[in-house]
Amino acid sequence: MEAQTCRGIAVTPGKAxxxxxxxxxxxxxxxGELMLRVLEVGICGTDEEINEGLYGAPxxxxxxxxxxxxxxxxxxxxxxxxxxxxxxxLAVPIVRRPCPENCAACARGxxxxxxxxxxRERGIxxxxxxxxxxxxDHADFVVRVPKTLxxxxxxxxxxSIVEKAIGETLRLQRRSPVPPRSALVTGAGPIGLLAxxxxxxxxxxxxxxxxxxKESLKARIATAAGANYIDDSTTTLEDATKGLTFDLAIExxxxxxxxxxxxxxxxxxxxxxxxGVTAGHHSLSIDVDLMNxxxxxxxxxxxxxVNAARYHYTAAVADLSRWKKRFPGLLPQLxxxxxxxxxxxxxxxxxxxxIKPVVEVSxx
Length: 364
Ligand SMILES: [Zn+2]
Ligand SMILES: [Zn+2]
Hints:
single chain; Quinone Oxidoreductase, Chain A, domain 1; Rossmann fold; 9 helices; 18 strands
């Protein structure tokens, strides 16, 4: 039988601006696997870095990587031995896969806590990603999505990151007899906005900081979700929140110096969660004795969080369904650009008011 192929994006890791469209193989559907038609792929900073040649590794034995890790797909074929899946079902493949050593964390389904660091990630390292028309994947690594989420389920993957970061920190904060009530989110990109929606839906008071004007889309989404938006370019965080401290702070700006300002706004028993990998080598002079004192004397918690396990994806699906009712019309507004596959590199271009650009890989 002739091998199947489809159109996809390929990059040569380590080489800048190598993205091109080419024919890529479609694996045969194996037992326990799903054949997926890729509908949409969300683009983020990781894809930019991969196209700049700064990041990414192809699967063993291949000289190119298919990028794309935030996706929405449609089931078009169901492998033998699988029940419960049907053609037409919507599905989101999980990004990270267990390390070959199957370490104690990966063996428990917590590849997001992998102990060896040898995990593979679809579209990032060691596994082809979703910027191709068709792909197969094992059903164990595919999350089902209700059809009612067709217009926003491409946000499941970025939201899974937020579900983990906030869910686990709120669990850690149960050490305090008083539940957290107020939160500060720094950075109104997709992660910051999704964190804002999550915290608002949990009934918390949320202050979201960015450097865009109050009329900007980011500010309007935050305000519509009931958050207080602060434009750090016209007023400072410190002025806008004078007299206030926060029980929880989420750093999602990817600008490291901001984390110390967020730290300065933490109250007693509060936690600061870092979700962004920051670029560059900013240096800052800080009073580490004061920082130490505050962390100790105020029972403060500093948490780093990356990636997500399967249950964070299912939590993301459940929250998107709830938010459709809770925040009517808001979720699709986070998708600020739609590009066909051949315009993938246009989707990488940043604009100050852009939130989540999406590549429409194949039309439904
Ligand atoms: Zn991403
Ligand atoms: Zn592992």
